[in-house]
Design goal:
single chain; 246 residues; mainly alpha; EBP; transmembrane helix
Length: 246
């Protein structure tokens, strides 16, 4: 009818649950090998550049510390949910590919927006501070590392639990059922954010425990020395007093 506005046609997309609203969706223009290859290349270049700078500031940095440093550099990232669905830059296409395993990244899901906002403004900078503390051999390294690892583990727990609970009670799944998208993307790509933080937190707790044990041993040794030294001084004073009396 004249005067009525035509409703915009729904844009077809491959994301689950079927029919989920993804405004302004535009399909990726780059093939998957190009997207993944570009990501690996950029991450490799970033880690190589930052590792070179780290070794310049601290040449004594060991291989293990350098690997941990690179891990925290990788953790430092920024996400843009408002434009990712329609954008065609490399990172947007990468996230649209990953979103096949979790469409919440494209639907401005309140949980995802809240968690990723905390990540951008808090956990991202804290990851950078962890990396800096490793290079600077700062005593704050292990406390910061424990906080950051707890944040990763808690975030992953919330990420999985909210999705799985919704699937259990409503039957709505945000992941495509194919092996690649569920087991490789959804499970496999998040697995390092469980294993690595758990290992690093254990390492930090063990290091702090060892240092505190050594500190307690030093305190006990100092108390023993002070007790022996005090007894010797008392004996000298007594001898001097005896000589004066004679």
């Amino acid at each position: 009818m004249f005067g009525q506005m035509a409703e915009p046609a729904e844009v077809a997309h491959p994301y689950y649950p079927l029919g989920v609203d993804i405004p302004h969706y535009a399909a990726n223009t780059l093939p998957l090998p190009v997207i993944l290859g570009s990501l690996v290349g950029m991450l490799g270049s970033a880690m190589l550049a930052t590792s070179t700078l780290a070794l310049r500031f601290n040449p004594s940095l060991g291989k293990g510390q350098l690997v941990i440093f690179c891990w925290f550099i990788v953790c430092y990232f920024v996400l843009n949910h408002a434009t990712v669905a329609s954008s065609q830059n490399l990172f947007a296409q990468l996230w649209k590919e990953y979103a096949l395993s979790d469409s919440r990244y494209l639907t401005s899901d309140p949980f995802m927006l809240s968690v990723e906002s905390i990540t951008v403004f808090l956990w991202g900078p804290l990851s950078f501070l962890c990396a800096v503390s490793i290079v600077a051999a700062s005593p704050l390294r292990h406390p910061l590392q424990i906080i950051m690892c707890m944040a990763h583990l808690y975030g992953v727990a919330l990420y999985y639990s909210t999705s799985l609970v919704e699937t259990h009670f409503t039957g709505r799944s945000h992941s495509r059922p194919e092996f690649l998208y569920f087991w490789v993307y959804y499970v496999g790509f998040n697995f390092p954010w469980v294993v690595v933080p758990a290992f690093l937190m254990y390492d930090s707790l063990k290091t702090i425990s060892r240092k505190l044990r050594s500190f307690e041993q030093v305190k006990i040794g100092l108390k023993g020395y002070e007790a022996r030294n005090g007894s010797a001084k008392t004996a000298v004073v007594s001898k001097k007093a005896e000589k004066k009396e004679q």
